[in-house]
Amino acid sequence: MAATVTSPDGRTVVNIGVNGDGKPSYSVSFDTTEIIRPSALGLIFRGGPNLDTGLSIAAETTATSDSTWEQPWGERRVVRDQYNELLVTFEADDPKRRFSVRFRVHDDGLGFRYEVPAQDAFGAVVIDDELTEFRLPVDAMGWWTPARGFNRYEYHTRRLSVVDLTLANTPATFRLANGTHVSLHEAALVNYAGYVLEQRDHGVLKTNLTPWPDGAGVKTATPFVTPWRTIQVADNATGLLNSSLILNLNEPNKLGDVSWVEPGKYIGIWWALHLGEKTWGSGPAHGATTDEAKRYIDFAAEHGFSGVLVEGWNTGWDGNWMENGAVFSFTESYPDFDLQEVAAYALAKGTRLVGHHETSGHISNYESQMNDAFELYGAVGVRQVKTGYVAHGGTLQRIDEDGKLINEWHDGQFAVDHFTRALEAAAQHQISINTHEPVKDTGLRRTYPNWLTREGARGQEYNSAWPLPNRVDHTVNLVYTRMLAGPLDFTPGIFNLQHQGADSNRRVNSTLAHQLALYIVLYSPVQMAADLPRNYLARPDAFQFIKDVPTDWEDSVALAGKAGDFVVFARRDRNSDDWYIGAITDESARQVDVPLDFLEAGQRYTATIYRDGDDAHWESNPLAVEIEQRIVTAADSLTLPLAAGGGAALRLEPQP
Ligand code: NOJ
Questions:
Q1: Which of 55, 365, 540, 563 is the most exposed place for a label (fewest CB within 10 A)?
Q2: Domains and CATH numbers, the chain
Q3: Peptide bond into 38 cis (omega under 30)
Q4: pLDDT computed for residue 503 by the predictor
Q5: Nearest CA to ligand 1 atom 7
Q6: Across the chain, what does the average pLDDT equal?
C-alpha cells in the first residue's frame, strides 16, 4: 500500500506507505536522492486507542493549486502559492478509527498535517505523543539552538553533525552531503503544543510535544487538525531564505481591514535601561518620565521615526521586576509619567508612543487586565505594544480554577492559546503586537497581520552591560535558522559598540557597518534604532542610513550566502523604486561579488555604499566605516569587502 505526491517542478517526491504491521510512514527524495528516510507518522492518545498501527490506506485524494496572494506588509508583497496536494486517509478496525494526513508539496519544500475527524473512538482527547519523525542522512551537518532550556530560544546556535543533536528548537537547518539544504519547522501553530526535535537514533529526529504540567501534549477534541510539519528543501542555503513555504501553509488574514497595522522604525527608552544608566523602577534614575519621553519624542520627530517605546511607565517594576509578574498594573502609570500627555505630545509631533506590557510571565495577572490595558492604549492613539514574557522556560505562571499556581512552557499549548487570545484582544483596539520571550513564529502573521514581529532569539540586549555578549557569528547563524520562521525584533543599530570601554568584553561583537546591514538582513516590519540618541548625533554620517532604510518591502531576494558564514540580501522598497542591499559575515573577512542584474535594465542608480573601512575588524577597529557613492546599472557587479565581523549596507536610488 503506497501513495505518491510530487512537487510541481517534479524534483521533490513524497512516498507514503503502510508496513506489514499497519504502521504508516513517509519518505522524501529530492532529485532522486533520498533526503528523508522512511519516517513514522502517528498519534498516541491517553488511554488509547491510538493512530499508529493496524492501519491501511482507505482513500487518496489529489489536488493542485497555483495562486498568488498579497501581504498587507512583509518582505515581499506578492506571494506565489503553488503546490500538489495529496490527502491520504488511513483506517483501522476494532475499534474503528480513521484519520488523514494532508501533504502539500511545493517546489521549496513540503508540509503535512494530521486531520482527525469526529468519530466514535475519539471525542475529547489528550494527545500524549506525536510519532512524526524526520529521518535525516546521518552525515548531515546542522544548525540549531538547544531546546527546553531555562533560556527558551535564547541560545547561541550549535553547528554540529546531526548525530550530535539532543533536543533542538525549530527551525533547525541541515546541509546534506550533496549540498542540498533542508530545514525542519512547523506552520500555523494554533490549538496545539509546539514541538521540539528529539534524536531517538542516529539521524532519527522525532517530534517531542512541549507538555502541559501533567505530561499531556495536547488537550483537544475531534474534529481537529494539527499544525503543518514542514520540510523546506533547496539546492543551497540561500534557497531556504527565498522560500515562502511557512506563510503559504497558514490561513489567510482573519482580521479584515488591517490598514491600521503600521510597519515603521522606532526608538525608545530602552538601551539606557539595559546599560544601567536608567531604571525601569521608580527613583532618581527612573527612565520613563514625562520629560524624558518628550525628549525622545522630539528626537524621533526630528529624525523621522514613527514610534517611541517607553518601558517602565507602569507600576510594578520596583525591586526585582523579573519576579513581579503578579503585581504589575497595565493601566496605572508611575506618578512621574503622564500617559495621556506623552501620547498626545507624540501625536502632535507626528509620531506615536509605542506601548509596553512586561508580564514577567504571569499570564493570569496579564489576562485579567489585558482588555482594559489595550483599551487604554487604543484610546490614547497607541498602535503597537511590545509585550514581554520574561520567565525561565517552563515557569510561565497561571492560576487555575482552584486558585493553584501552575507553571507552563512558552511553547506549550496553554501559552500558544494565550498568545492567540492576546492578539485577538489587541486587534479589538487596532493594536499590533511585538512579542518578546514569545512562542516560536510559525507564520501566523498571515492570519493575524497584527502580530508584527517578535524576539525568540538572543537579541541585541545581550550586547549591553550583560555578562555574555553575542558571538561574532551569531547574527549570520540567525539568518539560516531563526529567521526562516519570520520577523525578528533584534533591535539593531548600536553605534557605541564598546560602551563599557575598549578593554571590556561587555560590548557588541561586530563592526558598525555590520550593524547597519542588519536592518536589511534581519527582516522585521518594525525596526528599532536601539542606541542612545546622543550616539546617533555623534555619527550623523552612518545614522543617515538608519533614517533612510524602509521596513516594508515590495520584494526580497537572498543573492548569495553560506549557512553560518555570510549572506547578501537585496530588497526593494514597497513605497519607492529604491533598492537596498545588506551583507554580513562571521569572524572571517571576505569579499563578496554582487551582480546587480536584479535592477531595472537601462536605469541608472546612485549607490550609496556604507562599508567596513580598509582596516576595520570587529574586535580591534569596529568603527571604521567608508561611505562612498557610485553610479551603477543592472550591468554592473559590485565587490564588497567585508571585514571580520563586518558588513555592508547600500541604498540604490534610481536617477531621475
Ligand atoms: C526582555 C526584553 O527582551 C527586553 O527588550 C525588555 O527590555 C525587558 N524584557 C523588559 O521588559
A1: 540
A2: 2-248 (2.70.98.10), 264-388+432-550 (3.20.20.70)
A3: no
A4: 87
A5: 270
A6: 98
Indicate if 461 belongs to the active site: yes
CA of 628 to the centre of ligand 1 (A): 36
pLDDT digits (tens, 9 = 90+) for 94-108: 999 999 999 999 999
The DSSP code sequence of 422-471 is HHHHHHTTT-EEEEES-PPP-STTTT-TTEEEE--S--GGGGSSSSSPPP
Nearest to 152 by CA among 387, 439, 464: 439
Nearest-5° Cα angle at 542, 540 to 546: 95
What's the confidence (pLDDT) of residue 645? 98
Nearest to 447 by CA among 470, 476, 475, 427: 427
Question: Is the pTM here over 0.90, yes or no?
Answer: yes
435 C-alpha vs ligand 1 centroid, how far in Å?
10
Looking at the chain, the whole-number percentage of residues with pLDDT higher than 70 is: 100
Contact between 44 and 127 under an 8 Å Cβ cutoff? The reply is yes
Q: Measured between alpha carbons, how far is 139 from 153 in angstroms, rounded to an integer?
A: 26
State in Å: Cα 55 to ligand 1 middle: 49
Instruction: State the distance from the centre of ligand 1 to the C-alpha of 457, rounded, in angstroms.
Output: 12
Q: Which residue has the cell 543599530?
A: 493
Closest CA to 347 of 375, 325, 377: 377
Residue of the nearest CA to atom 2 in ligand 1? 436
Ligand 1, atom nearest to 273 Cα: 7
Residues 165-208 pLDDT 10s: 999 999 999 999 999 999 999 999 999 999 999 999 999 999 99
Q: Which of 436, 491, 524 to mutate to test the pocket of ligand 1 (most atoms within 8 A of CB)?
A: 436
Task: Enumerate residues 6+ apart whose C-beta is below 8 A from 275.
Answer: 464, 465, 499
- Phi first, then psi, for residue 304 (nearest 5°) are 85, 25
- The grid coordinates of residue 628 equal 562612498
CA nearest neighbour of 346 among 303, 386, 380 = 380
Separation CA 302–CA 305 (nearest Å): 8
Choosing from 133, 292, 358, 461, which is the catalytic residue? 461
Q: Measure 197 CA to ligand 1 centroid, in angstroms.
A: 27
Residue whose C-alpha cell reads 533542508 in the numeric block: 182
Q: What percent of the chain has pLDDT over 90?
A: 99
Neighbours of 17 (CB within 10 A): 17
Atom of ligand 1 at shortest range from CA of 356 = 11
Residue 358 CA, closest ligand 1 atom number? 11
As for ligand 1, residues whose beta carbon falls within 6 Å of it are 270, 311, 358, 388, 390, 436, 455, 459, 461
First to last CA, the chain: 64
Q: How far is the CA of 275 from the centre of ligand 1 (A)?
A: 12
Q: Which cell goes with 175?
A: 546541509
Choose one of 362, 390, 458 to mutate for the ligand 1 pocket test, by most ligand atoms within 8 angstroms of C-beta. Answer: 390
Which atom of ligand 1 is the closest one to the Cα of 388? 11
Contact between 136 and 36 (Cβ < 8 Å): yes
> Which atom of ligand 1 has the smallest separation from the CA of 280?
10
3-state secondary structure 315-338: CCCCCCHHHCCCCCCCCCECCCCC
Grid coordinates in use for 612? 567596513
Nearest to 451 by CA among 525, 511, 341: 525
Q: What angle do CA 515, 142, 617 make, to 5 degrees?
A: 30
